[in-house]
Amino acid sequence: MKQYILKRLLSGVIVLFGLSVFTFMLIHFIPGDPVRIMLGQRATVEQIEVLREELGLNKPLVLQYVNYASGVIKGDLGTSLKTGRPVSTEIAERFPATAKMAVASLGVAVVVGIGLGVLAARFKDTFLDSLIMTFSTFGMALPGFWLGLLVILVFSVHLGWFPIAGGTGFMDIVLPAVTLGTLTATALSRLTRAGMVEVLSNDYIRTARAKGMGERIVLLRHAFRNVMIPIVAVIGLEFAGLLGGAVIVEQVFNWPGIGTLAIQAISSRDFPMIQGTTLFIGAIYVLVVILIDVLYAILDPRIDYTAKREGA
């Protein structure tokens, strides 16, 4: 188990190295002179040379990457061209708001998605099953920005129950959490239903029912435990996406998170901030995937990660 975890951590380090190379090269992928693009066409030659010197773009490419990577290791992601503040500080200030919304959204998604999936499997091929699956199909095709605008129109403009946008309090987080949670719950409900339908047809489920066990115990203790692994994987990846910043929904609700920070950086051509947010979001995905792999081994001890493949 320890050896497997070490291998996954090593592979994660390799992926992060590749990600750092990609984010470093972002500024070099731009057609033309990136410094002139940042400053605009009215920039003087002196201003261009000063910024080029600050960004280290007048040095050899290899040396530029070494300086960039050493800074990343130390937690230095550069300085924002827009605010003049360290990129890591900007991200650290925005991350709590994103984490708050991610946790709230995931809570809605887990309760609604898994609950509807279990209900649909329990009442398979009934009107309730068809209704839930229709809801999930409609939700998966629904654009996030449209649902966000709809809930604002109904619950904020017409009913006045919640603030429209801009805050970070409890009432402010309800509508963004419901919007993101609903979108995530649709995929989760379909996955839960598919797994539960397969498990409920097994012989040990029929045996449990024949022994007189209650339906709730059969569903939750015997059936649901055996479909947890793929569900945990989906939940983990969705949570990583939420922590990375739900860009569209954050913009709709003017939520001061990582997604909004990234959009503002793109619109203002703040390339150090774009590099920093891209690297941060990618690192979250890598760490969550490693955590999911470790949870696999904990949730399903039947998986032998030390066994060698045949012929190896």
Description of the molecule:
The structure is a single chain. With 312 residues, this protein is mostly helical. The chain has a domain of 166 residues: MetI-like (MetI-like fold). The chain is built from 14 helices and no strands. α5 packs across α8. The chain starts with a helix and ends in a 13-residue tail after the last helix.
Helix-strand blueprint:
Elements: H1 2-29, H2 34-39, H3 45-55, H4 61-73, H5 87-122, H6 127-141, H7 144-158, H8 170-200, H9 203-210, H10 215-223, H11 228-243, H12 247-252, H13 258-267, H14 271-299
Transmembrane segments: 9-30, 101-119, 131-155, 161-183, 227-249, 279-299
Keywords: Cell membrane, Membrane, Transmembrane, Transmembrane helix, Transport
Protein name: Glutathione ABC transporter permease GsiC
Strand content: under 5%
* Count of helical regions: 14
Q: Report how far apart the termini are.
A: 19 Å
Proper CATH architecture of the domain at 96-261: Orthogonal Bundle
Order of helices and strands: HHHHHHHHHHHHHH
Which class of secondary structure composition applies to the elements? mainly alpha
| Biggest sheet overview | none
| Number of E-state strands | 0
CATH superfamily of the domain at 96-261: MetI-like
Computed CA radius of gyration, to the nearest angstrom: 24 Å
What is the CATH level 1 assignment of the domain at 96-261? Mainly Alpha
Binned, the helix content reads: over 70%
Mean pLDDT: 77
Instruction: Extract low-pLDDT stretches.
Output: 308-312
Which fold name is given in CATH as the topology of the domain at 96-261? MetI-like fold
Principal-axis shape: globular
